[in-house]
Amino acid sequence: MTHIGIDILGGDWAPEAALSGSLSALNLLGENTILHFIGPQNLVQQHLDEQHPALAKKAVIHPTDDFVEMGENPVKALQKKPQASINIGCALMAKGVLNGFASAGNSGALMVAAMHFLKPINGVSRPCVVSAFPQKNEHKNVLVDVGINADAKPEMLVQFAKLGQLYSHHVLGVKSPRVALLNTGAEPSKGSLLYQKTHELLTDAKDITFVGNLEARDFYDGVSDVTVCDGFTGNVVLKQAEGFYNLLKHQNIEDPFIEKFNYEEYGGTPILGVNGNVILGHGISSSKAICNMILATEKVAKANLALHINKAFNK
Amino acid sequence: MTHIGIDILGGDWAPEAALSGSLSALNLLGENTILHFIGPQNLVQQHLDEQHPALAKKAVIHPTDDFVEMGENPVKALQKKPQASINIGCALMAKGVLNGFASAGNSGALMVAAMHFLKPINGVSRPCVVSAFPQKNEHKNVLVDVGINADAKPEMLVQFAKLGQLYSHHVLGVKSPRVALLNTGAEPSKGSLLYQKTHELLTDAKDITFVGNLEARDFYDGVSDVTVCDGFTGNVVLKQAEGFYNLLKHQNIEDPFIEKFNYEEYGGTPILGVNGNVILGHGISSSKAICNMILATEKVAKANLALHINKAFNK
Q1: Which of A32, A302, B135, B289 could form a Cys-Cys staple with B139, CB 3.0–4.6 A?
Q2: Does B151 lie at the interface with A, CB-CB under 8 angstroms?
Q3: Residue A241: band (very low, low, confident or very high) from pLDDT cuts 50, 70, 90
Q4: CATH number for the domain formed by residue range(s) B127-264
């Protein structure tokens, strides 16, 4: 059985969006998957009662009314709110009740809770977050890190490469992921000192299929499976793509391929490098986004990504 | 009279694209503008002879067959090739023959030549390059730096803000440009140490209308006139926009607003902070791109941007 937890109190439109997205997901999750609702008992129960009994059987409720506010200090939230939905979710993961946990709540608080309850994987100096971008050739290009480590070091970027590779291989099914370094030009001497040094380290790394620097203009061309950068640059790339998508909506441009850039389709951003499969959702997550995030969490949990990362870093 | 120089030997498709773009520009430049062709005498003369005599009168040729190769070392090119088109162009600017100079050639070599012949403006610690991005509300958002300073310091970013402001005001006609800091979130504590410190300095700067942090997802929303970042991040943003535009072309999506993202429409990237109006074009510049770059150079030269920057930094 696969047990997925969802934070019903996380996100700007919680609990409504989280609840309705979770109920949609119940219909789509695998037969052997159980969905754990972490949120208000009565409200969840009432909605589950409206479901077909066969579906409601696939649900478990972990009752709580407490949650971390969006602007709240993550460390204080961990200390003062043990019953906040995010803290309950991560604690349930640590106890082995859940195989995966997703939340669209306070991202800092989710990160702090994941580090506290699940601990970083031995050998991983800094956990990071990834996002898989659509490509012209229908492949996916996994960008890592897209937000946690704004001040990164070359050795950290090499670890991001390894983590991204494991995600691409175990979750997206790419046999031998090609790793590129996001940069301002093809030559090894391009970019900041951080990127020059990282280029050197990636060239020498034995367990990485390094294909060299990748300029952002070629980022969607399907020439790499994993693209490495610091968390500041990655966050800018992720959000610029969102801004561009919004620009197209503003122009009333509709296109099935471009629709893949809709954040609602992403299914959230996995945190790599902690002992557990934790997925971070967009704060503005709609019902559809929550549903896709739960399905993505099931995929990561079934692949047991955290276990594979642990093995790879501790062989 | 306004005198604009164009490098006929610069760019991947030189001399054909540069020549044909220059001839198109001749038709469009103001009555009191003279276009200086820096390139092969016979070839240019032959093409000018095919023009209407009234147009050919607006042209001057500075003959040379030498140029800097795209992959050539910029410093060596300056030392060993005094007759390379880029070096001639910058030298003509320094002598006061030209009011503006544009090249789609080796960008490093153009930068080195501009620094050598024109010198940085007193008080500007690091010249930078800017690009004006289309906005939902038809305004322009000037991103600075988009490529030179991959390793930037907070004080440099504050200067980029001032330089961007002067560009927005004098060239784009924005009365009181609003300056934002590109970042990963709205709070002052967001981003890398570089961005945290820059936020502090911009908040305290008296001559800057600082409107706070801007996330990349809001970059096209017309909420700032100038957006400041380091040259690595800016280059990634510029090239990602180009990548996204290419993606839309690949999907056969046509839209007049989106067409503004076509690099051919940009008109090149002005170098700010040297004593002269120098515009850097895209290496792959087509005839149309060259034509627009020349028109943009005329605009910058007529505004006499370099002079305004000099005044602002030395009052």
Answers
A1: B135
A2: yes
A3: very high
A4: 3.40.718.10
Chain B contact present for A42, CB below 8 A: no
End-to-end CA distance of chain B: give it in Å, rounded: 27
pLDDT in tens, B194-251: 999 999 999 999 999 999 999 999 999 999 999 999 999 999 999 999 999 999 999 9
Cβ neighbours for A20, distance < 8 A, ≥ 6 positions apart: A47, A287, A290
A vs B, Cβ pairs < 8 A, gives 116
Q: What's the pLDDT band for B137 if we cut at 50, 70, 90? A: confident
CB contact under 8 A, B217 and A136: no
Q: Angle, to 10 degrees, between the axis of helix B16-28 and the axis of helix B287-303?
A: 50
- Residue A278: the pLDDT is 98
pLDDT digits (tens, 9 = 90+) for A92-131: 999 999 999 999 999 999 999 999 999 999 999 999 999 9
Q: Which two tokens stand for residue A173?
A: 């099914």
Please judge whether B241 and A239 are an interchain contact, meaning their C-beta atoms are less than 8 angstroms apart.
Answer: no
Residue-by-residue DSSP string for A3-14: EEEEETT-STTT
Asked if B186 reaches chain A (Cβ–Cβ under 8 Å), the answer is: no
User: Could you report the per-residue pLDDT of A177-230, keeping only the tens digit for each?
Assistant: 999 999 999 999 999 999 999 999 999 999 999 999 999 999 999 999 999 999
Is it the case that residue B52 has pLDDT exceeding 90? no
Tokens found for residue B23: 């001839």
B217–A243 CB contact, under 8 Å:
yes
Query: Is there a contact between A239 and B233 if contact means CB atoms under 8 Å apart?
Result: no
Give the pLDDT band of residue A53 (cuts 50, 70, 90): confident
CB < 8 Å to B217, chain A = 239-240, 242-243, 246
Query: A280 contacts in B (CB within 8 Å)?
Result: none
* Cβ pair A167, A308 in contact under 8 A: no
Domain ranges of chain A: 1-122+273-302, 125-265
- The Cα A168–Cα A258 span in angstroms is 21
Instruction: Express each pLDDT in B9-29 by its tens digit.
Output: 999 999 999 999 999 999 999
Q: How far is B180 from chain A (nearest CA, A)?
A: 14
The arrangement of secondary structure in B1-124+273-304, i.e. its CATH architecture, is 3-Layer(aba) Sandwich (3.40)
Confidence of residue B100 (pLDDT cuts 50, 70, 90): very high
Give all strands of the β-sheet with B269-272 in edge-to-edge order: B59-63, B33-39, B2-7, B100-103, B278-280, B269-272, B128-134, B140-144, B226-228, B178-183, B209-215
Tell me which of 1.10.3720.10, 1.10.10.60, 3.40.718.10, 3.40.50.12780 is the CATH number of domain A1-122+273-302.
3.40.718.10
